[in-house]
Design a protein that fits this description.
The protein is of the alpha+beta class. The protein is about 25% helix and about 30% strand. It has 8 helices and 18 strands. Bound molecules: pyridoxal-5'-phosphate and 2-OXO-4-methylpentanoic acid (COI).
């Protein structure tokens, strides 16, 4: 489908000086660009009314289905200014495919991948001045989302949806360098059960994570690690990151990540790091990992590093895992060499500083 986005320029854009000020210290998800992209769907017309319009409030009827039964899904990906001035994003087709899969799980209309990618290109074109310069740690975080807009209180799939894309310039997730985090191993709450919505990126998963997250924070931890819901035995993932465990050192390194057994979000960073770890000469294993194996391996030193991964922070080293009754430090508590190496391999590709041998980068706005 050749997408035609009607463009309405923001009559009151952010003054250039203010935009420059924001771009010097954007933080994460605090500032938004001057425009947003929207596309509507209904059962009669399919996808229609694709537009780029001034960023602003959405008007919703109070009986919109999303407000009652939570039919809302989202994605998260970044676009990077390249050394030649063009703007490229990382594997946007993978986010498009995951958005479609998430929509299917939530009984929502599937957005065609071409329309998803076209919306990114259209918004970035309109707000190209907002994309941070090449060579730094900053990028443009893109947040596509979709909600059920049919008015009515019957519990059934909506017959109308609004797809919307907003963009937020973001700084390094860890200002001042990559810092290890402490994580809370939740034995009380789970994130997803088999047959549930763990493999989908729906807003409700994150709503349900806020209470365990607050419990983790009470124990001084910034993320929660979840176990499988059936046996409370196998490590699934964190609230917003997949997990990697590193065994060995030197040229005998095995990198293990929990297998996608049906409750874990299939992370695009996870998938990419599996490829890069192989290139680095690591043995790469996707399998189940029990919490006992993790804690005893970290305690006896056979696990040398553990890190989380995701779009926002790329690689998040874990310094310590805490649980009811104890805690274990990972390695020397500092970021480990394998995670740091994989992080720089990936960010070099994303920022155009290393060859894109996997064709992961898509130019969305030419130089
Ligand atoms: N797991 C969860 C639950 C997430 O929310 C995310 C972040 O999007 C990830 C994993 C990492 O996914 P990705 O690498 O595609 O950003
Ligand atoms: C990530 O991109 O790694 C995330 O954790 C996304 C989060 C803001 C929902």
């Amino acid at each position: 489908m050749a997408a035609q986005f009607a463009r309405t320029h923001n009559p009151d854009p952010t003054p250039e000086a203010r935009r420059a000020e924001i771009l010097t210290a954007p933080g994460f998800g605090r500032y938004f660009t001057d425009h947003m992209a929207t596309v509507r769907w209904n059962a009669q017309r399919g996808w229609h009314d694709a537009a780029v319009v001034p960023y602003g409030p959405l008007v919703l009827d109070p009986a919109s289905m999303v407000l009652h039964y939570g039919q809302e899904i989202f994605e998260g990906l970044k676009a990077y200014r390249q050394p030649d001035g063009s703007i490229a994003s990382f594997r946007p087709e993978a986010n498009a495919a995951r958005f479609r899969a998430t929509a299917a799980r939530m009984a929502m209309a599937p957005l065609p991948d071409e329309l998803f990618v076209a919306s990114l290109a259209e918004l970035l074109d309109a707000d190209r001045e907002w994309v941070p310069p090449a060579g730094g740690e900053e990028a443009m975080y893109l947040r596509p989302f979709m909600l059920a807009t049919e008015v009515g209180l019957g519990v059934r799939p909506s017959s109308e949806y609004l797809y919307c894309l907003i963009a937020s310039p973001v700084g390094p997730y860890f200002p001042g360098g990559v810092k290890p985090i402490d994580v809370w191993l939740s034995t009380e709450y789970t994130r997803a059960a088999l047959g549930g919505t763990g493999t989908a990126k729906c807003g409700g998963n994150y709503a349900a994570s806020l209470l365990p997250q607050a419990q983790g924070a009470e124990h001084g931890c910034s993320q929660v690690v979840y176990l499988d819901a059936e046996e409370r035995h196998w490590v699934d993932e964190m609230g917003s990151n997949n997990l990697f465990f590193v065994y060995g050192s030197g040229d005998q390194i095995e990198v293990v990540t929990p297998a996608l057994t049906g409750s874990i979000l299939p992370g695009i960073t996870r998938d990419s790091l599996l490829v890069l770890a192989k290139e680095l000469g690591c043995e790469v294993t996707e399998r189940r990992m029990s919490w006992e194996e993790w804690l005893s391996g970290a305690a006896d030193g056979s696990i040398s590093e553990v890190f989380g991964c995701g779009t926002a922070a790329v690689v998040t080293p874990i310094g310590r895992v805490r649980y009811h009754g104890g805690e274990v430090v990972m390695g020397d508590g500092q970021p480990g060499p394998v995670g740091l190496r994989l992080r720089s391999m990936l960010t070099d590709i994303q920022r155009g500083a290393a060859p894109d041998t996997h064709s992961w980068m898509r130019t969305l706005v030419p130089a």
